[in-house]
Amino acid sequence: MACLLRVARGGLSPWRGYCSKGTQGALSEGFVEALKAVVGSPHVSTAAVVREQHGHDESMHRCQPPDAVSVAPEHRPGQPGWQPCNGQRVPIIPIGTGNGLEGGVCATQGGVCINLTHMDRITELNPEDFSVVVEPGVTRKALNTHLRDSGLWFPVDPGADASLCGMAATGASGTNAVRYGTMRDNVLNLEVVLPDGRLLHTAGRGRRSRKSAAGYDLTGLFVGSEGTLGLITAATLRLHPVPEATVAATCAFPSVQAAVDSTVQILQAAVPVARIEFLDDIMMDACNRYSKLNCSVAPTLFLEFHGSKQALEEQVQRAEEIVQLNGASHFSWAKESEERSRLWAARHNAWYAVLALRPGCKGYSTDVCVPISRLPEILVRTKEELKASGLTGAIVGHVGDGNFHCILLVDPEDADELQRVEAFAEELGRRALALHGTCTGEHGIGLGKRQLLREEVGPVGLETMRQLKATLDPRGLMNPGKVL
Ligand SMILES: Cc1cc2nc3c(=O)[nH]c(=O)nc-3n(C[C@H](O)[C@H](O)[C@H](O)COP(=O)(O)OP(=O)(O)OC[C@H]3O[C@@H](n4cnc5c(N)ncnc54)[C@H](O)[C@@H]3O)c2cc1C
After folding, report:
1. What is the CATH number of the domain that holds 426?
2. 477 lies in a domain?
3. Domain-terminating residue out of 241, 276, 294
4. Which atom of ligand 1 is nearest to the CA of 183?
5. Are residues 217 and 189 part of one domain?
6. Are residues 333 and 353 in the same domain?
7. Most buried pick, 159, 167, 196, 397, via CB within 10 A?
8. Does the C-beta of 4 come closer than 6 Å to ligand 1?
9. Are residues 128 and 234 in the same domain?
10. Does this model's pTM top 0.90?
11. Mean pLDDT by 10 residues, the chain (484 residues)
């Protein structure tokens, strides 16, 4: 038990007293004993505090605790609790660091939450092949700390220090995706425990080639599967060389339109920008307060350029010409690494900066992504509608990918506000679909975007997804109630 609490305290956020009690299933008599017999008594808990810590993520979705929590013993999961769950048809909910924003770990039908954070070894590093194999408890920051002296790094960087297998499960990305791609581009192979207990290596055991045309893309199927198809127990990831030189800058604009037009023009001019992030005036103000920055309170771009010193000069000059043509102030440079870290830490903490605007409220993040040419239109309109809505919210986005978030604050006990926030988010999702985009660029579907997924992929797309799910998980045990 002590071991479970240690995991829960170390890896997951504390329960914040917003808990649903009514939807869980009841475990049959003897189930917990059978589970303990398989995974070991100290690795199973039914204590309320442990269950509640595992029944929510960072989203506004109400905490729905599992009936039991099973912690995979260190460094070898085997099939943690699989036999009793399968035998008695008990749902299985995988959890990483619990940083998701779509309610992906809520135990909507009860069941057993499987926590893999004790499996935290980097089991293989192949620097000459630019690849690494990690267990599911390894987080993105832990991996980059481990790589510090190798000349390599892993660039996918959601704001939170998420587990890399959780990031694979949600198809995560972050500020570097415009240059280095998302998890979809950086996962080479996955080890997965399938719902029937078999172990699958999605690209074949031990394979780590940069590309493959061998049959169906099973790795691609499991990236973004949100725990609904199997439990990811190891990931082989692609690494990148640390750039020779890096410079970052911020620049403020007279309007949202000018900032987004600059983004589109920089990309169309083929400037190989490494990061290009948009923050609206409200977000900039929140970040100034929360992270003690001193930026103008105006629509702003945070940019970063990677390359040789000579290449950087050219990139910066071209980008600077474009932003000035759009009426921006000059770049404010962050050349020293400490200054750059401060800037990007502030960007990564944008979620918490917005939450601090109305203490006690929960955050709801929209996550639309559109083709880059449609970005100015949707962003400008969203800003206008947010102002008119009377809701509290701010806009931040990985605009280089056409992806942005409207982070809305909601008092979970205020049913009217909750309903208005959900309506705003749904309408924004539909607007993105109408512009040939998607309702989620990186957070996934989880609980809240299932209707939008139906509209996005259409009846045949949905039916195909259901058939895949039924083939791999005929009993519907894996993370029920999510995605489909
Ligand atoms: C401040 C903040 C900023 C963020 N910024 C970004 C961002 O920029 N980009 C972005 O993409 N996301 C962002 N996120 C969301 C979050 O970081 C990602 O969704 C991340 O990938 C979640 O990883 P996790 O380990 O916390 O997963 P969890 O929240 O634990 O789980 C998420 C889903 O994955 C499943 N899952 C977890 N581990 C496994 C496994 N081993 N096998 C199978 N399924 C599994 C779960 O069942 C659940 O459905 C942010 C979140 C916060 C709080």
Report:
1. 3.30.70.2740
2. no
3. 241
4. 11
5. yes
6. yes
7. 167
8. no
9. yes
10. yes
11. 44 47 65 88 93 95 93 65 81 96 96 93 97 97 97 97 98 98 98 92 97 97 98 97 95 97 96 97 98 96 95 93 93 89 96 96 96 97 97 97 97 93 97 98 97 98 98 96 96
CA dist 430 and 449 (Å) reads 11
Q: Nearest residue CA, atom 22 of ligand 1?
A: 100
Does any ligand 1 atom lie closer than 6 A to the CB of residue 177? no
Residues spanned by the domain of 400: 360-445
Residue 465 covered by a domain: no
Length reported for the chain: 484
**29 burial type by CB count under 10 A (0-12 exposed, 13-18 middle, 19+ buried):** exposed
Listed in sequence order, the residues at least 6 apart from 475 whose beta carbon sits closer than 8 Å to its beta carbon are: 86, 89, 195
Cα 57 to Cα 435: distance, rounded to the nearest angstrom: 30
Give the number of domains in the chain. 4
- Torsion-angle region of 327 (φ positive above 0: left; ψ -120 to 50: alpha; else: beta): left
In this structure, the answer to whether residues 383 and 411 fall within a common structural domain is yes
- 104 CB near ligand 1 (under 6 Å): yes
- Looking at residue 335, its pLDDT comes to 82
Q: Does residue 407 share a domain with residue 391?
A: yes
Q: Which residue's CA is the nearest one to ligand 1's atom 9? A: 158
Instruction: Report d(CA 50, CA 71) in Å as an integer.
Output: 11
State residue 412's pLDDT score.
85
- Among the candidates 357, 392, 408, a domain finishes at 357
Atom of ligand 1 nearest to the CA of 93: 47
- The dihedral built from the CA positions of residue 1, 45, 117 and 61, taken in this order, carries a sign that is negative
What pLDDT sits at residue 17? 41
